[in-house]
Write a structure and sequence with these properties.
The longest helix is centred in the N-terminal third of the chain and has 37 residues. The chain has 318 residues and is of the alpha+beta class. The chain starts with 14 loop residues before the first strand and ends in a 5-residue tail after the last helix. It contains seven helices and 15 strands. The radius of gyration is 40 Å and the shape is elongated.
């Protein structure tokens, strides 16, 4: 038979009409083919999609930043019995009452001891105990410079010296605290702190329209001393004054010590100048720990005279 008359068997192809036949153990799976044009388009679309995701994430972070900052700041309404150190401790304010006062000075005014119920104070972000402060990005990114060996060796000595100086300073302060010895006349200031609110300061917070005494700076638990020798007329609760002590002196005048957290004397007891009569506090109608001190011509309210001028007349330097 002539060769040209033979039928040639066609070779079967694995790709037919856009399908790929894959054999696995006799099973055949038809897979669609993607043209070169479609693959090229997918490659171009991938970077664009990633860029879009990054841009959307960055925009979300920018929009969330003000909300996070606002969430870190809260407003607190002062209630009766509050004082700055108590609020700062209760709400973990970083920097304590000094930071709280600095942030709210326009609201509180010049005297940090005089905060009134209803005042709105801004509280900063909380500072959880033991939380490590985050390092600035610039510091974490920059390579650390190697410290000189001499500086490394000197660091522990400098640290020990600083700690020793701090201990010595505290010892000096503790030794100086009770050193408010009576003057040659036997008179002394009631506490070692300065005056926060002067005598006759005006304001609606006082029922008489003015301050009938002088407020001394004194944290809760500060030792309060009799300014001069005399006899305790009363020692106990006195309404708006909280725990108070009233002492009659030899010249016929009376000294009053109010808002005490505890008493160390009782009525009828004789005291000397500089003797401890109690501890300062914030009892009664008080906006925070301090000592309210008065000099009176009688043991009762309303007979006040200038307490600082009186102490100066008796040789006390204030």
């Amino acid at each position: 038979m002539p060769a040209k008359g033979k039928h040639r068997r066609q070779k079967s192809t694995l790709i037919t009409r856009g399908l790929v036949a894959a054999g696995t153990g006799g099973a055949v799976v038809a897979l669609p083919l993607f043209g070169a044009t479609g693959a090229h388009a997918a490659e171009q679309a991938a970077p664009a999609a990633v860029a879009g995701t990054v841009a959307a994430t960055a925009q979300a972070q920018v929009q969330a930043a003000p909300a996070a900052k606002a969430a870190a700041t809260t407003t607190y309404s002062v209630v009766a019995g509050d004082y700055l150190s108590k609020i700062a401790a209760d709400h973990d304010v970083a920097g304590g009452w000094k930071r709280l006062y600095a942030d709210n000075r326009q609201v509180v005014g010049e005297n940090p001891s005089l905060i009134l119920p209803g005042m709105k104070l801004t509280l900063g972000a909380k500072n959880p105990a033991g939380a490590a402060a985050p390092k600035p990005a610039a510091q974490s990114a920059a390579p650390k410079a190697a410290a000189p060996k001499a500086a490394v060796k000197a660091a522990p000595k400098a640290k020990a010296k600083a700690a020793e100086q701090t201990r010595a300073s505290r010892s000096t302060e503790r030794a100086a605290a009770p050193a408010a010895a009576p003057a040659a006349t036997g008179w002394v200031a009631p506490v070692t702190g300065g005056v926060s609110t002067p005598y006759r300061a005006s304001g609606s917070m006082w029922s008489s329209g003015y301050h009938t005494g002088a407020d001394f700076i004194a944290s809760s638990g500060t030792t309060v001393r009799a300014v001069g020798a005399g006899t305790v007329v009363s020692a106990g609760w006195s309404g708006a004054y909280g725990n108070e002590v009233v002492i009659q002196h030899a010249d016929g005048n009376y000294s009053q010590y109010a808002h005490l957290s505890s008493l160390a004397v009782s009525a009828g007891q004789s005291v000397s100048g500089g003797q401890q009569i109690g501890l300062s506090g914030s009892t009664g109608n008080s906006t925070g720990p301090h000592l309210h001190f008065e000099i009176r011509t009688s043991p009762s309210y309303g007979a006040d005279i200038d307490p600082l001028a009186y102490l100066r007349q008796h040789g006390v330097a204030i």
